Amino acid sequence: MAQSTAIRGCVPTVILAVFLLIQPSISIYCEEDDCYDLLGVSQTANSSEIKKAYYKLSLKHHPDKNPDPESKKLFVKVANAYEILKDEATREQYDYAIAHPEEVFYNTARYYHAYYGHKTDTRAVLVGLLLVLSGFQYLNQWTRYNQALDMVKKTPAYKNKLKALELERTGGMTNKKKSNKQINKKVEEDLSKELELQIKGAERPSVWELIGIRFILLPYTLVKLLLWYGCWFWRYQVKQAPYSREDASYLTRRSLGVPSDSWRYIDESSKEDLIERRLWDKSNMESYREEMRKESKRRR
């Protein structure tokens, strides 16, 4: 009996708790009022009727038309209700909250996502991100390039080239006063511009290598790649034509696992020797590796 009485006593408490949870999921829209009632329209009203009702009430309760403080408060509520009901998405959310008040957390989450969620255009975010990354990439490349350039200019080989270039420009005549001194900075800058310094791993930055540019050119790159593979298959798989010098160079570089930037720094005679070995053939590659292993042991 006592247990039954205790249970009956808890029922109103549980109902009250559920009611307090359900109410916030609806009241977050128009507080304690009903958005439709505030505008004086039914839940089935169309957008034109909602708009017409709002303009009628806004003219009546606008602070410029009606100085009454209560009318001002009502105007704010009416404006808020119109903002909710004029948009199809938020109106659908509000109707769902009315029909399913028990889904408290879901309704609340949808409301805050709609009003406080990230509303920036995804395309704008992507473009901004690409611009920022490209900017950092370009600055980093220039920093690396300038640091590498400074290191090269301190080497004896570079200084010798600079002196040889100065002698060439002056016809072999040198200024005795400056013979034991460093070359004038302005002259050095002018001469260094004539020397094409190619520094491995720190090439001069190019806008075509930036992430943003590559992303913009991605469709073109993909089409070009597909055409290249198509031509390759037709020429060397179907027609069985001999490899051109350029394609043989590509196959050699790929077989050795050498990046294109590093391949440029290999002298032409070494390139020709590697290409003639036809290293894209598995047997030739194994023979070449064995030769390299023996050469490495001999040097030790």
Please characterize this protein's 3D structure:
Helix 5 packs antiparallel against helix 6. It contains 15 helices and no strands. By secondary structure, it is an all-alpha fold. It has helices at residues 2-30, 35-39, 47-61, 69-86, 88-99, 104-116, 122-153, 156-169, 185-194, 211-216, 218-238, 245-256, 260-263, 268-276, 282-299. The chain has 3 domains: 16-116, Helix Hairpins; 124-207, no CATH class; 242-299.
List the helices and strands and how they pair.
Elements: H1 2-30, H2 35-39, H3 47-61, H4 69-86, H5 88-99, H6 104-116, H7 122-153, H8 156-169, H9 185-194, H10 211-216, H11 218-238, H12 245-256, H13 260-263, H14 268-276, H15 282-299
Q: How much is the radius of gyration in Å?
A: 39 Å
Give the averaged pLDDT, no decimals: 79
**Uncertain residue segments:** 1-22, 176-181
CATH architecture of the largest domain: Orthogonal Bundle
Shape: elongated
For the termini, the CA-CA separation is 98 Å
| Major sheet description | none
Which CATH first-tier class of the largest domain would you pick? Mainly Alpha
Q: What is the percentage of strand-forming residues?
A: under 5%
Helix content: over 70%
**What is the third-level CATH name, the topology of the largest domain?**
Helix Hairpins
- Supply the helix-strand structural class: mainly alpha
Number of helices: 15
**Helix and strand element order:** HHHHHHHHHHHHHHH
CATH superfamily of the largest domain, please? DnaJ domain
